[in-house]
Amino acid sequence: MTQASICTIGDEILIGQILDTNSSVIARTLEENGVMVTRMLSIGDDHDTIIDNLRNELEHNQIVISTGGLGPTKDDITKAALAELSGSKGYVMNEPQLEIVHRILKARGLDVLDINRAQALVPDTCEVIPNQKGTAPVMVFRFPEERFGHPATLYSLPGVPFEAIGALPDVVSDIKSHNPLSDIFHKCIMVSGMAESALSKKIEDWEDNLPSDMHLAYLPNQLTGVRLRLSIYGGNREEEEKRIDEEFAKLRPILGDMIYSYQDDTLQNALGSLFRGTGMTISAAESCTGGMIASLITSVPGASEYFLGSVTSYAIAVKQRVLDVHPDDIISYGVVSSEVAAAMADGVRKLTGSTYAVATTGLAGPGGDDRNPVGTVWIGLSGPNGTTTLTKVFKNDRKTNIERFSSAAIDALRLFVLNDLKR
Question: What residue ranges define each of the domains in the chain, with the CATH number in brackets?
């Protein structure tokens, strides 16, 4: 399996001044084309540090892709470092890139200065892939087997995202022409309602009996639950997909409806799939989630077919006047309670005329109250077969709690509807 490392060069990434978006796109592109990415790192603008780190990556990978440090100003020192690393004896002018430099600057109404021309100067040890979108070319350094114990290639790309990403097709084409590549196959299922640690324990026997060439990853997210990803490196894509499907099918008896999708998906999309084309509708009443449930549901294209609307009933007065929550329930049980959650769900369902409704009332933080700890949410669910509630407690910061309250409510509604459909 051909392995690669991705390196970003520049102090601006290390100090958090800019976000490294290049690496994720490069990694995804390489994986899609059968190259296993083993490592990503960021390197500061220091000549010796650049050389030492790139040398180390070349020792452990057949391919290294670097981005950044190739501008026309004196602080961009990557080219000199690459020249030393590759044993260059001098620089040569790359005429195709020089023509691009002239064309770009002319189109901008700018004069071609010496520092612009210098962009097309490259070490005599490299091959060049012309950069059609910018002035700095892609430099390709090929190292023989005796240098690092295996043939290795270093691709130096500009750091500007649209230039680096624009050069990827040519880089991938070059990689394919010089390396034996095989398929890499990933497939995911989405699981909700269970923490990563509890899920790991529940499927422990299944995981222990996976074929040795399958690699399992747990990818938790507060809005989507846990993504389980199986990967196979090498082999035939069609055959491997079938094998992974067979392994995931074994999870259905173990996890049941906690599996909400057999592909990379969201809870709100899975909820929408239960309602599309049925004539059934949804409404929401939100207190502690502040409208996030409605926002998530309506982020799905076509949600207007089944989502009627919501009430963000943050104040007690709105709960009482709009949703018809009885004052005695609030006095007796508190705002954050099963009784109030149920009344909110019934109230918004009656108000909108929806088939189903979901409601939330809780304490996102930072403070709790004398009845509930911080992170408590009560979820109310109302439908044609009755009303029910459930409670969950999350121990996170306010923002994360709100996200988890919202995803828990959407998932609870999904399971509530599924249960009705099985009657």
Answer: 3-178 (3.40.980.10), 184-261 (3.30.70.2860), 267-421 (3.90.950.20)
